Amino acid sequence: MQTPWTSTVTAALPAHLADDARTVAGAMPGPRCTPGAPFAVDVLGETVAIPHRIHTSEPPAVVLPQLTATQRTILHCLYSRHSDGLVRQRHLEEVVASTEPWVVPFVLRLAGEYVLEIVSAIRTGLPDLAAAGSTHHDLYGEFIARNPGFFATTERRVVSYWACYHRWRYPEFAAYPGALLLEALRRTALSRQPRPAA
Predict the structure, then answer these.
(1) What backbone torsions phi and psi does residue 32 show, to the nearest 5 degrees?
(2) CA separation for the pair 101, 146 (Å, rounded)
(3) What is the C-alpha separation between 76 and 82, in angstroms, rounded?
(4) For residue 21, which of 102, 109, 108, 111 has the smallest C-alpha distance?
(5) With contact defined as beta carbons under 8 Å apart, do 78 and 6 qualify?
(6) Engineered SS bond to 141: which of 52, 71, 81, 188, CB 3.0-4.6 Å?
(7) Long-range contacts of 54-57 (CB under 8 A, 24+ apart)
(8) Where are the domains of the chain?
């Protein structure tokens, strides 16, 4: 019988990962309260619903070696939605360099959050993001092209958090790490736009 928590986890991932998602859900401690309302995005033509926040303790260290590589990636993605910023950052750093399309929305959502160390971790983990033809450039460009509204919301969040929390340190928005990350992400999106006929 599928529990509400298992349903939340499986809904956050493409259907072909359902068995792995159920295994990961079973390996995680039960949530202390209901996960935050999910955000829906398109991953290669399939809609997934990723929780805004999860409220569950991290599993004991002995759990990770029992999971496959894919299952560990799923677990890290889920904990990147944790209510504790340090937990989010720690798990983001485990998956930010992944080339799996279903990891992208977990990483990109964090680009629009207020924790500067998380934004910096994304920039560090995706050094080739702005390089046309690189795997990450194409991967993020594809995702943004499919989810323009989601990306527009992310852009607004970056500007808003800069204005609220980081303007004193970065008086010019263009120098803010979040702005630099946005610029690289915009380049990936532009590369997916059809070129006008000559």
Answers:
(1) -75, -25
(2) 12
(3) 10
(4) 102
(5) no
(6) 188
(7) 54/78, 54/79, 54/81, 54/82, 54/83, 55/31, 55/82, 55/83, 56/28, 56/29, 56/30, 56/31, 56/32, 56/82, 57/29, 57/32
(8) 1-95, 97-198
Tokens of 100: 């799996």
- Sign, CA dihedral 63-66-67-72, equals positive
What are 197's two structure tokens? 């006929």
Report whether 180 contacts 172 (CB < 8 A).
Answer: no
Rounded to whole angstroms, how far apart are CA atoms 39 and 6? 17
Q: Residue 27 is encoded by which pair of tokens?
A: 């390996």
pLDDT tens, per residue, the chain with 198 residues: 578 899 999 999 999 999 999 999 999 998 888 877 899 999 999 999 999 999 999 999 999 999 999 999 999 999 999 999 999 999 999 999 999 999 999 999 999 998 999 999 999 999 999 899 999 999 999 999 999 999 999 999 999 999 999 999 999 999 999 999 999 999 998 877 644 444
Residues contacting 193, CB < 8 A, separation 6+: 145
